[in-house]
Amino acid sequence: MFLGELAGDAGYRIDWSAVPPAALAAACDTGDPEPLSALLETAVALVEPTAASGAGGKRREVHTLAGTLGEVADQLRPADDPHPPS
Predict the structure, then answer these.
(1) How far, in Å, CA of 64 to CA of 28, rounded?
(2) What is the reported pLDDT for 84?
(3) Residue pLDDT, tens place only, 36-68
(4) pLDDT of amino acid 48
(5) At 62, is the secondary structure helix, strand, or coil?
(6) Which neighbouring-strand residues pair with 46?
(7) How many angstroms separate the CA atoms of 69 and 80, rounded?
(8) What is the pTM (predicted TM-score) of this model?
(9) Do residues 47 and 11 touch, judged by C-beta distance below 8 A?
(10) How far is it, in rounded angstroms, from Cα 68 to Cα 38?
(11) 80 φ, ψ (degrees, to nearest 5)
(12) Could you tell me if residue 80 is left (phi over 0), alpha (psi between -120 and 50 degrees) or otherwise beta?
């Protein structure tokens, strides 16, 4: 839900039917934003034109979104988590 809202606020929508649940869970469990970013690239679509749209704009937005999610995950990670942030 959070990811969908965050994408919506940035002018994008996520087609969750294009994201296999097992792959999403595996991407989120790594603590690395790259697998999640790669997974979402095929499911994210621009809803409203923005200054960032155009060549490479969508890719930059997805990477920015994944980076933001990584930062949020790092802040929420318990101190005794066996998977420290990279």
Answers:
(1) 16
(2) 63
(3) 888 888 888 888 654 544 545 666 777 777 778
(4) 61
(5) helix
(6) 12
(7) 20
(8) 0.48
(9) yes
(10) 15
(11) -95, 15
(12) alpha
